[in-house]
Amino acid sequence: MSKSVHVIHPFPPLYDAQSKILILGSFPSVKSREQMFFYGHPQNRFWRVISSIYGEEVPQTIVEKKTLLMAHKIALWDVIASCDIEGSSDASIRNAVANDLSIILDYADIQKIIVNGKTAEKYYLKYTADKIGRPAICLPSTSPANAAWNLEKLIKAWETELK
């Protein structure tokens, strides 16, 4: 049984002045923390969903991932800045502290905020929504734990909001 440890989000948000859509996850997985970039677990379908929507090859490197997002004016970060967590288990998150989204919102003209799954939505509503006064659209999680949604269904759901 894994033990809960206090973890501080180890890498910065991805955005630039052209960003129009902000996608927020909950907190990076162990694999993402090891790679120091978002959605690092090979079974997470985030990169397959995004690349499919825009008709591009699935990015393999961090540089390719950044290029894909920037080309489509997408910013990426997580709701939680630090928390106690067991491995990658969102269900184990305790003592969460939210990221300050003003870093992005004061710099880029973000027109839409999307949360990737119910856990991101839960923490967004708990810690962030009232502070910034902006709603977020909750899309089905791209996590492999969300087995109820196959890749095709995920692409259709996400495409509605991204295009």
What does this structure look like?
With 163 residues, this protein is α/β, with parallel strands linked by helices. The chain has a single domain (5-162), classed as Uracil-DNA glycosylase-like domain (Uracil-DNA Glycosylase, subunit E). 34% of the residues lie in helices and 20% in strands. It has six helices and seven strands. It has helices at 30-35, 46-53, 62-71, 102-105, 118-132, 151-162; strands at 5-8, 21-25, 74-78, 80-85, 94-98, 112-116, 137-139. The strands form two sheets. The protein has a four-stranded parallel sheet with strand order 3-2-6-7. Strands 1-4-5 form a three-stranded antiparallel sheet, covered by helices on one side. Helix 2 (46-53) packs across helix 6 (151-162). It is globular and about 40 Å long. The protein starts with a strand and ends with a helix. The model has no long low-confidence stretch (mean pLDDT 96).
- Proportion of residues in β-strands: 15-25%
Low-pLDDT runs: none
Report the principal-axis shape. Answer: globular
Number of helices, counting only DSSP H or I runs of 4 residues or more: 6
Q: Kindly report the name of the CATH homologous superfamily.
A: Uracil-DNA glycosylase-like domain
Q: Order of strands side by side in the largest beta sheet?
A: 3-2-6-7
Give the % helix: 25-40%
CATH architecture: 3-Layer(aba) Sandwich
- Tell me the count of domains: 1
Question: Helix/strand-derived class?
Answer: alpha/beta
Give the SSE string.
Answer: EEHHHEEEHEHEH
Whole-Å distance between the termini? Answer: 42 Å
The biggest beta sheet reads: 4 strands, parallel
Q: Could you tell me the radius of gyration in angstroms?
A: 15 Å
The top-level CATH class is Alpha Beta
Mean pLDDT across residues: 96
CATH topology: Uracil-DNA Glycosylase, subunit E
Number of strands: 7
